[in-house]
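Minutes, project check-in

Agenda point 3 was the complex the collaborators sent over. CS summarized: two entities, 904 residues total, and the question is how they sit relative to each other. Sequences were read into the notes so everyone works from the same version.
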Amino acid sequence: MRTAHTQRFASSLADIGVSLTRTEAADFAATIDSLVTEPAVGVPFEGYDGVSLADTAVETPPTPRLLHEAETGVTPVGKAVAEYGTLVVDSDPVGTEPVSLYCPTHVAVVRESDVVPDVESVTDYLGDRFAAGGSSVFATGVSSTGDMGALVEGVHGPKRVEVVLLTDR
Amino acid sequence: MSTRSERRRKAEKIRHLLETEGDAVQENVDHLNQGRYGAIERFDEFEDLRTAARQIKEDAIENLPALIDELRASVEANGGTLYVADDAEDANRYVTDVVASKDADTLVKSKSMTTEEIDVNEALEATGVDVWETDLGEFVLQVADERSSHLVGPSLHKSREEVAKLFNRVFEPEEPFETAEELTQFARDYLGERIRDADVGMTGANFVLAESGTIALVTNEGNARKTAVTPDTHVAVAGIEKVIPGVEELQPFVELISKTATGQDISQYVSMLTPPVDSPTIDFDNPDEPLGSDDADREFHLVLIDNGRTAMREDDQLRETLYCIRCGACANSCANFQHVGGHAFGGETYTGGIATGWEAGVEGLDSAGEFNDLCTGCSRCVNACPVKIDIPWINTVVRDRLNGETPPSEFAFLVEGLTPDAEETVGLQKRLFGNFDTFAKLGSATAPVSNWMTSLGPVRSLLDRYLGVATERDLPAFQRETLVDWFGARRPRAPNATAERTVVLYPDVYTNYVLTGRGKAAVRTLEALGVHVELASPLESGRAPLSQGMVSTATERAESVAADLAPYLDSDFDVVVIEPSDLAMFRREYGKLLDAGDAERLSANSYDVMEYLYGLISNGADADALADAAAPVAYHSHCQQRTLGVDVYAESVFEELGFDVVTSDVECCGMAGSFGYKSEYYELSMDVGEDLREQFVDETDRVLVASGTSCTEQMTDLFRRDVTHPIELVAPDAR
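CS then shared the predicted structure for the full assembly.
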């Protein structure tokens, strides 16, 4: 099941122009460093066993200056929806929402066990979060607009999104 | 203003918009439509989710007071505030008070039609607050000081060149802007600075969840996310109709809205915020302190706006407007909208077919009356709407109410005696077209003199002057021998005693008095396939008055037709209909006009003539009895046929008989019943027709074929060639 969802997730991401890099926890820091353009900002990874930005080029915690100036923002996501390549970005006190939003490139870290088949299958997850006062964003691909007479990518949100898939988590 | 000068004013406005905005609107709307068709094609659950979404909205509006109570408790438990505003003034007072209490200088907004409805920008600016629209389309309009022309793409009436010209003039860049990339980058940087400086962020809400106080915002640019998360204070403004129970009910809408709005499988961002949000506060004045390290708290105000919605909820006809999720699919699927856009087909705030319901409900009938005529009832929006709102019906009802507002005219004597009931306030033009059957009967009885009369220049001038009948159009040529006359004088070829099937053919007004050839062809064809045919009474179906908003007249007609057909249905006759707009009456609109049982029985037993033919052939009737394939065919099916899904049968029969067929893929021919005959809409009608002309103009070796009378008339004008009904092409002695 896990593989089937991941395959669908990978092909959905390919359809919307988002690259996917597979890695294991042990290679996480090296993978991140190979993907980010500095300056880079990130949020602490809480509850991600053996995964940390501590030994990477990514600066934490986020500051307003980093939000404004960083080229890359690195965050975990709560869930990923295979059907559309959607990342469920959870709002939290460490700043996942602004870090995923402000930088031109968003590097989203997804645990393979968090990939679910479709929108319907995150309903319970969201319901629990909302009931506890939580917020989440379905983010699918890069920000875009057609308002200036042609499709342009990279408006108020990121121009590039890259997914790092933790295959052993 | 006299009726005639009013018609001239409308014609001039439409002409101006066709010239200035039509091309950009059509290009952008076409792009949205292509995306929509593809997204729906890929999505197997579309119809199931439409049904689910409709039910959710019906239930939510039914239970609205309880949902709002639940929502209030949720918002307050989260630490926010809910304010339900009676009207625009009440809402603006609350918002300006909140903004003043924060000593705010700058407020940034993400896109919200509801804030446009209440003119909150003007109210805030009057108190000295700078307001910035951060959605790029809204920003363009703010800079241009123009009104939105589309529910989803507010500035889609502007081309890239026009936006570049505007920005170069207003912002005077060192290097003039040229590309969409350059314009977007400038707007992003310019607005990014406003967002960082802003004291208050204002958003709308696409959906509001009662159980948790969560609001859902559907966007592509990311501006709603930034607007909601950057300033400490968040004010969300939405109509009371946006409340649904909870996250379970949200899911179908998340799947539907982007597909019908922009043709995306899912929008870039669906923000589901339960404010005040957990994200840390962001203080750009202290750039090197970690986020959230100031001691500021987040603050949230949800302002729900009534502004006429409670009255709409209690209005049996306007209620379903409240189910609207503002996706704009009704506008995009509308041929008239595609050509003139929302500056003609729209009111104070809302645009497209559903705008008639919104404007009538929140602004009043006058605002709806400005553009309601642009809905021709073609019904192409019906299948496009993700919550199954009967948008043509809302337009008809509002037209009916507007008719009641029209003062009696001094020229009423011209059409006196036409209307059988208390609709004496209906304008003359609408009464003329709404009672076409009376003219047809008279015209036929006095043909050919009547035809000579109506082709005389002075007569046409008078018709234009007093009744608004476009002089450019040929009027129908009435036949002295009606279909009923012809049928009565002949001997049936398939007597009831031996026939396997029995059909009662409905002789609509056009088939009976004008296009009798298609009626005769239908009788001959059915009989050749062993069907016993009888002719119903030549009664008008109610389509003509309904199209003019004369609902009570239409109801009387419907009742007469139903009474005439009832004995046939009792004896298991099938009802066969030649004119698609009348079939649509029997199948769709009679559901609104007749008792449910009568309407259902007639709907279930009525067939398009080609649909019936297809059924006969599929059930073993001998197609050899029909005409052999002759010249290749260019076929345009009728808009209402397409909505009913019966357009395919003519194509199937053609293919069965070996015809070489090409078909059109425009929504509508542009004539749409009487619409194209009206002086003020003639040019728009021809502009819409141009799309059809382009598709068939090179098909000079093909026979032009159309099912509808209006389409036949429009195509005759567009191509200056004869146009044939499908049944005439396949009838046994048509060779």
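Noted in discussion: The CA atoms of residues 522 and 727 of chain B lie 6 Å apart.
Follow-up: revisit at the next meeting once the mutant set is ready.
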